[in-house]
Amino acid sequence: MQKLFNNRHFLGLLFMLPAGVLLLVFLTYPLGLGTWLGFTDAKIGRSGQWIGLDNFKYLVGDAVARLSLFNTLFYTVVASVIKFALGLWLATLLNRNLPFKSFFRAIVLLPFIVPTALSAIAFWWLYDAQFSILSWTLTKMGLINQYIDFLGDPWNARLSLIAANIWRGVPFVAICLLAGLQTISPSLYEAAALDGATPWQRFRYVTLPLLTPIIAVVMTFSVLFTFTDFQLIYVITRGGPLNATHLMATLSFQRAIPGGSLGEGAALATLMIPFLLAAILFSYYGLQRRAWQQGAKD
Amino acid sequence: MSKFTRREFLKTTAGAAAAGTLGFGSQDAFAQAKWTPEKGAKLRVLRWKRFVQGDEDKWMENTKAFTAKTGIEVRVDHEGWEDVRPKAAVAANVGSGPDIIISTFEDAHQYPDKLVDVSDVCNYLGTKYGGWYDVCKAYCMEKGKWVAVPMGCAGNAVVHRIGAMKKAGFEEFPKDLPGFLKLAQGYKAAGIPPGFALGNATGDGNVWTHWLVWSHGGKMVDEKGNVVIASPETEAALNYGKQLYETFIPGTLSWLDPNNNKAFLDGQIGMTANGISVYYAAKNSQDAKIKEMVADIGHANFPVGPVGKTTELNLFFPMMLFKYSKFPNAAKAYLAFMMEKEQYEPWQQAAIGYVSHPLKAYEKNPLWGSDPKNLPYSNSMKVMLPNGYAGPMGYASAACMADFIMVNMVAEAISGSKPVKEAMDRAKARAERYYKV
């Protein structure tokens, strides 16, 4: 026994055991169970039979499921791109020597720290068909003569939800990128300035390459959060109007829990995994290549 | 039996005698004589969370009265009504959980073999209180046995403005579909158009869209569970709905359950479908403008369509007693006690008519007569069809409603976003998926 405890390898394994168990119980098991359920016809309160790819075949042919895939991709791509652009812009602004710098940095985080359900309710009011303050203001200003149907028209509803998601997600991107910006040594900018680089060139050839690793991480997280968004949708539209805002996550919940079709819901959730994996792989193998970061061309 | 000692025999009989003096078997309306509670019985009840505070307060008060009479401790947990259903399903499957679960709609048909036969309780109550409405049997009877005790339903009715109705040429609320459409047009002309929820509104959306289709003779499934939603009757309903939709206030496609309440109380809409809550919110409002509206608010049951009978849908509540319960007799005593007139009528009053009764005798509850405007809600159980109409109820009917198949079909068709035929076919494909199991 004594000998065993003196063995480096054994001790290493022993110390890793708690973490391993945690991962196994809280990550691997639910993921495995979810995937397995997708191949069964399990209902809530009834264990299912193995039905192979039946659920997936059905979902591929189901117009609502296909619409939810489109919605999810549209939502993720548009929201992520805008969040990145606004976040980077905000980060560079905050990186300058502003008066009350700390105050502004703190205030920027506000949308991120408000519980999602609360901000969702606020947006629900902002977008209300009858009580929207946005419509009211525009009407009073004489710019429109009828209230905007923010959530009743499929495209309006999609864009309105994207706007809400952006509002919520920008602080996360901005603050993380700000942290990245602060790690860039000022001497590099000085050198670039001495070489006569324009502000754009300084950004393009100094800031951007050095920021890429953090951009990769931040945007991976941002894409994952957006792709799996649930609360905003569920509070503001519940997937309506006419399923125009159902994301895969909300549709999967609707079918699995209130609808009772655990198997089908799980299959829909499983279908999200390839997209999420692709996003992660892209960021790791695409954006983190050293050569690219150092300015080399492919 | 051989181990049953004389001492134990004395204890038991003494207990029974003591119970008798407490009211068991006495002639008050207390039903415990029929169900002698198990020794040391304790009950756990899970029910949907109140819509109005009075409901919960009175329910707990009645529960306390039960404990005082029987010594049986009862713990009541409250959860949002949409969360009770999945929990009940899990409890049924796992074989452990609350003794009694008060859930919604056709839950008793999803796992009837996991539920205690409560025919004795229902027959006792039915005989004593004038019988159950037919829809109770559809929801709570399986193969000739009662598998749940009906608690009632949260009634939905047309809430409208009386003044504008009269201006539109109607002394009374119309009882047929052409009249209803004409009234809707009248409201639009008066500047307070109708508004019925067409978003994924679990309560308000499902209720009126089911009525619309059923009133024309359309239905999701036939008696055998074959999906027959794509039919000339449904088509007629959707075409009628199109005309109705033209009168609606803009934005109803996005409406969830709370939207119509807000719009009505703000005076923006003249007609909608809702529980009694709008009226009571107006009655209890401190706002002078809303208070003024009270006298002008009217209630009516939905009109009858070509099928010639009422075809409404309301939120039904079954009370299920699970077989895993160690104290089925105590639970039956509790269920019977809560449904007795002495408890039920005051509870209904405390819930200001939000819950409509399943037993015919409670039509005479003074609550309904106290304000004639309450009357349409007293009919809620009488005028409704079960949500799985006209087929068998169970997993498929529950899933169809949770997936908003009817709501989405109606919304797609009447808003013109999909041709009527395509909307019906899409609904059919989706429903067939559920009914195939």
Kindly give the count of domains of chain A. 2
- Share of helix among residues of chain B? 40-55%
Q: Can you name the CATH architecture of the largest domain in chain B?
A: 3-Layer(aba) Sandwich
- The tally of domains of chain B stands at 2
Order of helices and strands of chain A: HHHHHHHHHHHHHHHH
- What low-confidence regions of chain B span 5 or more consecutive residues with pLDDT below 50? 1-29
CA radius of gyration of chain A: 24 Å
Task: Describe this protein's structure.
The complex is a heterodimer of chains A (298) and B (437). With 298 residues, chain A is mainly α. Helices cover 73% and strands 0% of the residues of chain A. Chain A has 2 domains: 1-38, no CATH class; 52-293, Orthogonal Bundle (MetI-like fold). In chain A, helix 4 packs antiparallel against helix 11 (199-227), helix 9 (154-182) packs across helix 11 (199-227) and helix 13 packs antiparallel against helix 14 (262-270). The termini of chain A are far apart. Chain B is of the alpha+beta class. Chain B has 2 domains: 32-154 and 315-378, Periplasmic binding protein-like II (D-Maltodextrin-Binding Protein, domain 2, 3-Layer(aba) Sandwich); 157-313 and 403-435, D-Maltodextrin-Binding Protein, domain 2. Chain B has helices at residues 6-22, 53-70, 81-94, 119-128, 134-140, 162-167, 177-189, 204-215, 232-245, 259-265, 277-283, 288-293, 328-339, 341-350, 366-370, 375-378, 395-402, 405-414, 420-435, and strands at residues 42-48, 73-79, 100-102, 141-142, 145-146, 149-154, 157-161, 271-274, 297-300, 315-321, 355-356. Chain B has a 6-stranded mixed β-sheet, with helices on both faces. Chain B is globular. Mean pLDDT of chain B is 90; it is low at 1-29.
Secondary structure: elements and pairs:
The complex is a heterodimer of chains A (298) and B (437).
Chain A lengths: L1 H5 L1 H31 L15 H8 L1 H33 L5 H8 L1 H4 L2 H11 L6 H8 L13 H29 L3 H9 L4 H29 L3 H6 L11 H9 L5 H9 L1 H16 L2 H4 L5
Helix pairs in contact in A: 2-14, 4-9, 4-11, 9-11, 11-15, 13-14
Chain B lengths: L5 H17 L19 E7 L4 H18 L2 E7 L1 H14 L5 E3 L16 H10 L5 H7 E2 L2 E2 L2 E6 L2 E5 H6 L9 H13 L14 H12 L16 H14 L13 H7 L5 E4 L2 H7 L4 H6 L3 E4 L14 E7 L6 H12 L1 H10 L4 E2 L9 H5 L4 H4 L16 H8 L2 H10 L5 H16 L2
Parallel strand pairs in B: 1-2, 1-3
Antiparallel strand pairs in B: 3-10, 4-5, 6-10, 6-11, 7-8, 7-9
Helix pairs in contact in B: 2-14, 4-13, 8-9, 17-19, 18-19
